[in-house]
UniProtKB/TrEMBL annotation:
Keyword Plastid: no
Position of the signal peptide: 1-23
UniProt xrefs under InterPro entries: Kinase-like_dom_sf, LysM, LysM2_CERK1_LYK3_4_5, LysM3_LYK4_5, NFP_LYK_LysM1, Plant_RLK_LysM, Prot_kinase_dom
GO CC terms: plasma membrane
Record region (Disordered): 238-259
Name of the featured protein: Uncharacterized protein
GO-annotated biological processes: response to other organism
Gene source species: Tagetes erecta
Membrane spanning stretches: 266-292
Record's bilayer topology term: Single-pass membrane protein
């Protein structure tokens, strides 16, 4: 049942681009910087008047930045109604916003000739150019082209002290959007490191709808800072959305809530009818995605030069946990671990036969039996508050479940659900000891997808978001069904701020991303790199350290042979590359998609790596398509 609905949901994701063919407004891309070229056929001048209405209520976002950091100054700059703006953001009219905070701005959008716009007026200061005004002052809510167009003369200069009309980019819903329940369009200002799915999740909007509203697609979704992205809304936006992270999804599902609920019934029906078509399509989508991505590699800078991006966010050690006194300890424990069982040391001793060597699994992890259930007990020193706090707040299918804790004589004991099949590292490598342990293609893809889902959950749906930082095959446990659970969270840390500098370089070297090893940069993209390494090991059956022996520095070089374009010997090279023990029992086309996925994850430039939600979408397509292949190819999927 679980896996069935899982597949269904992924089919819907898959079908989105097929159903929503008709686009709405072209995304502006990087055209904003080239002010010399006037090209009315692109969207630089504004969004086309293709809506139902000539005028409508619309919304903009603006990032508070002195001197435009108060309700009044922002309202004046963007010609917004002060009362309405303060109500929309749930603040008083004399409120000052923190620098970088997202401010929601209500505006009246009007069709003028070909384009929608909202007028702002602006007094030019010395040294300002249309580009500086559009990009730096208005943060991309307007373009130099639109400002120049307003003056109807491309070459005319703007003079200090003159009053300009600055057309702000807004739009009204099209007939198609209105039919889908969209009432407003929000012009969202993109900043560094954002993705369409991330922005959609902020407003609880289906990613497919946002892509469509901007004429983007799943194979072409690169977005750039200081440009606007239209977000289709059925209700006015609220400050709760812009200050709070998105709510966690149901365990093991990673799609953001869908606003087009009504449409679902026929989408479900379509799944049956179009299933066959879609599955064939999946291979293409996934394969091309990473090709295109590579070709169009964005020049999105990795870090903004602003020093504030480099905050050191090492968490202070929780002093409360260093106490030895039992009663004080229990009190502090109950604060962080309300829903955890607190075991007595005697109970754990009994469970593990006094921590006997027969019960030792590995390192300081013991197997035990409590009330007839198998558990794993890990003995730890030092500060374990990080792991307890994290595991106590998150509950996800693919993340190990912490059931209880115990503290005795200076040591912590963490009690987890037991994973029958042990660590993934016991299963994937060529090794005489493990000769009877072998995972088939489907099991490997399922495990990879499980890990991707767990990481995506940590990155996108926990508060605050976490970077796992500890990816390696021995930290992935397999249950009796060979479903994966991520474990060992002692290195995990908050990812607040997209990038942060850490003082201690820790983690497993072969899995660590170049930007972390060189500069200590931490972001969720660090896990994406680690995941690429893990996936490489999973499909080749070869330890990362052995892969490193074959390359200079850049791990993705091991993929070059297979990835070489137009190579007639490609299948042969693929056969050399994929785990020999599979003896060719894998679909070559899907294996190629997987190689491309690995290549994307191992990109030296973190911003060019996909994010975990994209990785898991891709893997779920590969899994679904592999499953379809597993059935007899003559049986039509329509019958389901
Ligand atoms: C103008 O836009 C058209 C259509 O989008 C495009 O083909 C053309 O290359 C553009 N011209 C310039 C100079 O950018
Ligand atoms: C400004 O907004 C408030 C509340 O939204 C509204 O009552 C008022 O009429 C608006 N004022 C103008 C000038 O539009
Ligand atoms: C915006 O400015 C243009 C001229 O630049 C003017 O024609 C139009 O009426 C203005 N729109 C509004 C709503 O003020
Ligand atoms: C646009 O403005 C932002 C922030 O004000 C700045 O960081 C960025 O470099 C500007 N873009 C260009 C191309 O100058
Ligand atoms: C544009 O402005 C320049 C300089 O102000 C002027 O010489 C030229 O005639 C103007 N062109 C148009 C089409 O108004
Ligand atoms: C268009 O305008 C009418 C009348 O103001 C309004 O009822 C309707 O909701 C608008 N449609 C859209 C899509 O905004």
């Amino acid at each position: 049942m679980v896996s069935y609905s899982f597949i269904l949901i992924n089919c819907i994701l898959l079908l989105c681009p097929l159903i929503l063919i008709q686009a709405q407004q072209p995304y502006i891309r990087k055209l904003t910087t080239n002010c010399g070229i006037r090209n009315a056929s692109t969207s630089v001048l504004g969004y086309a008047c293709n809506g139902v209405n000539q005028t409508c209520q619309a919304y903009l976002t603006f990032r508070s930045k002195p001197p435009y950091n108060t309700v009044v100054s922002i309202s004046n700059l963007l010609n917004a109604n002060i009362t309405h703006l303060s109500q929309l953001n749930s603040v008083s009219q004399d409120h000052t916003f923190g620098t970088g905070e997202i401010v929601l701005v209500p505006t009246r959008c009007l069709c003028l000739g070909q384009f929608y716009q909202a007028n702002a007026t602006y007094l030019v200061r010395s040294g300002e150019t249309p580009f500086l005004i559009a990009n730096d002052t208005f943060e991309g809510l307007s373009t130099c082209h639109a400002i120049q167009n307003e003056r109807n003369n491309l070459t005319s200069n703007i003079y200090t002290g003159s009053r300009l009309i600055v057309p702000l980019r807004c739009a009204c819903p099209t007939e198609k959007q209105a039919a889908a329940g969209v009432k407003y369009l929000l012009s969202y200002l993109i900043t560094w490191g954002q993705t369409v799915s991330g922005i959609s999740a902020i407003f609880g909007v289906d990613t497919g709808l946002t892509l469509e509203a901007n004429e983007l697609s799943e194979s072409d979704y690169n977005i750039f800072p200081f440009t606007t992205l239209l977000v289709p809304l059925s209700d006015p936006p609220s400050r709760l959305q812009t200050i709070a992270p998105p709510p966690p999804p149901q365990p093991s599902l990673s799609s953001p809530p869908d606003t087009s609920g009504k449409d679902h019934k026929w989408v479900y029906m379509l799944v049956g009818v179009l299933g066959g078509v879609a599955l064939t399509f999946a291979i293409g989508l996934c394969a091309f995605w990473f090709c295109i991505r590579k070709q169009k590699k964005t020049s999105l800078p990795m870090v903004s030069s602003a020093s504030q991006s480099f905050e050191a966010v090492e968490k202070p050690v929780d002093k409360k946990l260093d106490v030895d006194d039992d009663s004080e300890f229990m009190e502090s424990l109950s604060n962080i671990a309300q829903s955890l069982k607190v075991y007595k040391f005697e109970e754990l001793k009994l469970a593990t036969h006094d921590f006997s060597s027969e019960c030792l699994i590995k390192g300081s992890v013991y197997q035990g039996t409590i009330n007839g259930d198998l558990v794993a007990v890990k003995k730890m020193h030092g500060d374990v508050s990080n792991e307890i706090r994290l595991l106590n707040t998150i509950h996800h299918h693919n993340i190990i479940h912490l059931t209880g804790v115990c503290f005795s004589e200076g040591h912590w004991y963490l009690v987890y659900d037991f994973a029958d099949n042990g660590p993934l590292s016991d299963w994937i490598y060529y090794n005489a000891l493990n000769s009877n342990k072998l995972l088939d293609w489907m099991q490997r893809i399922q495990i990879a997808l499980d890990v991707a889902n767990g990481l995506d959950y940590l990155h996108s749906y926990t508060t605050p978001p976490y970077v796992y930082k500890n990816l390696e095959s021995s930290n992935i446990l397999l249950d009796d069904d060979f479903r994966a659970k991520i474990t060992n969270f002692d290195l995990a840390r908050s990812a607040e701020g997209q990038f942060a500098l850490t003082r201690h370089i820790v983690g497993t070297r072969g899995y660590m991303s170049p930007e972390y090893l060189e500069n200590g940069l931490i972001s969720t993209k660090l896990d994406v790199y680690g995941f690429g390494v893990l996936l490489l090991e999973i499909v080749t059956g070869i330890l990362v350290s052995d892969h490193y022996e074959k390359v200079n520095k850049n791990l993705s070089e091991v993929l070059h042979d297979v990835l070489e374009e137009d190579d007639i010997d490609r299948n042969e090279k693929l056969n050399d590359f994929i785990d020999q023990r599979l003896q060719g029992n894998y679909p070559p086309q899907l294996a190629m998609s997987l190689v491309k996925l690995i290549d994307g994850c191992l990109d030296q430039d973190p911003s060019a790596r996909p994010d975990m939600s994209e990785v898991s979408q891709c893997l779920s397509r590969i899994l679904i398509t592999s499953q379809a292949r597993d059935l007899s190819p003559t049986i039509s999927v329509q019958g389901r």
